[in-house]
Specification:
By secondary structure, the chain is α/β, with parallel strands linked by helices. The protein has six helices and five strands; from the N terminus they run E-E-H-E-H-H-E-E-H-H-H. The protein has helices spanning 51-64, 75-81, 83-96, 131-154, 160-163, 169-178; strands at residues 12-18, 27-33, 67-73, 104-108, 119-123.
Length: 199
């Protein structure tokens, strides 16, 4: 059973990101403030749910949350600042957009760039421990999946509808054949070491 909050006396937002290990596309993050009496048995870490369950849960989270927002950092920005900083920036952008200002942040993972004026606690595997982080993981994942599905229409040969930009064999083979797109993260190793863009 997921815990409701770390500080029951504070307005707490859970934050998580999606798409950190991808070769293509933006990284997405969500921030969610759930009401103290929120109950949902299905809610869990997005990685433990099916695609269908995640999309079932998204409207439940959005309709019940006191506030939620999604932040995005593009592939070009990732290349400039690195993926770790980009993940934190995406979280900051999500927090910036919340209609309520949280008094505490629960961050999935072990590191975070402090958000000015709000204390935070980093929780390793937080998306399988706290409701608000699990909710944020679902929003970040589903909004990013929708975005990769849209990009797939533009570049179907990379199979983004299925791999969502992650480094599958088919994705790497398409990069080897067609080269990278404007959506690829050029600071990442796009090809297997034995394949080179300059063979």
């Amino acid at each position: 059973m997921l815990e409701k909050n770390l500080h029951p006396d504070k307005l707490e937002a859970g934050c998580d990101e999606a798409g950190r290990g991808c070769l293509a596309g933006s990284v997405f993050a969500a921030a969610v403030i759930l009401p103290p009496d929120f109950e949902c048995e299905l809610l869990n870490d997005s990685k433990k749910l099916t695609d269908k369950q995640r999309y079932q849960l998204r409207p439940v989270i959005e309709e019940n949350a006191l506030a939620f927002a999604v932040g995005i950092v593009t592939a070009g920005e990732i290349d400039k600042i690195n993926i770790l900083k980009a993940s934190f920036l995406a979280m900051h952008r999500a927090i910036d957009q919340l209609s309520l200002k949280p008094e505490h942040l629960l961050i999935d993972g072990n590191r975070f760039t402090p958000y000015e004026g709000i204390d935070h606690t980093c929780i390793v595997k937080g998306d399988s421990k706290f409701q608000s982080i699990a909710a944020a993981s679902i929003l970040a994942k589903t909004y990013r999946d929708d975005y990769m599905d849209q990009l797939h229409e533009e570049y179907p040969m990379y199979d983004w509808k299925k791999n969502k930009g992650y480094p599958t064999k088919k994705h790497r083979a398409a990069i080897a054949e067609y080269g990278p797109t404007a959506y690829h993260r050029m600071s990442f190793q796009l090809l297997d070491k034995q394949l080179s863009l300059f063979d």
